[in-house]
Amino acid sequence: MSEYIHKSYNVTVLMYHLVFPAKYRRVVFDDEVDMVLREVCIDIEKRYEIKFLEIGTDKDHVHFLVQSVPSYSVKKIVQMIKSLTAREVLSRCPRVKKKLWGGEFWSDGYFSSTVGKHGDEAMIGKYVKGQGGKYHKLHSDHQLTLF
Predict the structure, then answer these.
(1) Using CA atoms in the order 133, 121, 118, 20, what is the torsion angle rounded to 10 degrees?
(2) DSSP one-letter string for the chain
(3) Which residues contact 11 (CB under 8 A, 6 or more apart)?
(4) Do 115 and 18 contact (CB within 8 A), yes or no?
(5) Domain spans of the chain, in order of start
(6) How much is the pLDDT for 130?
(7) Which of 73, 68, 77 minimizes the C-alpha distance to 20?
(8) Which string of b and e fits 74-105 if b means at least 16 CB within 10 Å?
(9) Which listed residue, 35, 86, 114, 142, has the most CB atoms within 10 A of its CB?
(10) Is the pTM of this model over 0.85?
(11) What does pLDDT average to in each consecutive run of 10 residues of the chain (147 residues)?
(12) What's the pLDDT score for residue 6?
């Protein structure tokens, strides 16, 4: 379960859903690799300001639900998790290294999404409207533009 992280001048609850596919989308996750991955993630929690709320594996990719602090960007979190888990899995499970032709463990890409503690975008909008007196929307733009 997520918690509020209290620092000297802020309180945060930043959660991210991250998905990392294995290199070449190879089927490398089994009970042994899952156990190593879990142990490494628990060790990461002890050393860094990252909390793994949930870890789920499929045959060729992993889902992480992580909580962190604002000083860690999503890119930094991804790099940290990918590098530490890859190093340990490849060293503790040599057969995985053979399956991946001795190369990298994770593919270069990843998926990331923010996760809200108290609901989705519509619920937050409703909450903001309910604060104070008369609500006046100054801006709304839900269409992404291409450069």
Answers:
(1) -160
(2) ---PEE-SS-EE-EEEEEEEEBGGG-----HHHHHHHHHHHHHHHHHSSEEEEEEEE-SSEEEEEEEE-TTS-HHHHHHHHHHHHHHHHHHH-HHHHHHTTTS-SB-S--EEEEE-SS--HHHHHHHHHHSSS--------------
(3) 4, 5
(4) no
(5) 13-116
(6) 66
(7) 77
(8) beebbebbbebbbebbbeebeebbeebeeeeb
(9) 86
(10) no
(11) 77 87 88 92 94 87 90 96 95 88 88 78 64 52 56
(12) 80
Structure tokens at 144: 């992404």
What is the number of residues in the chain? 147
Measure Cα distances from 131 to 56, 126, 127, 136 in Å.
37, 9, 7, 11
Residue written as tokens 């909008």?
Answer: 125
Residue 40 token pair = 């490494």
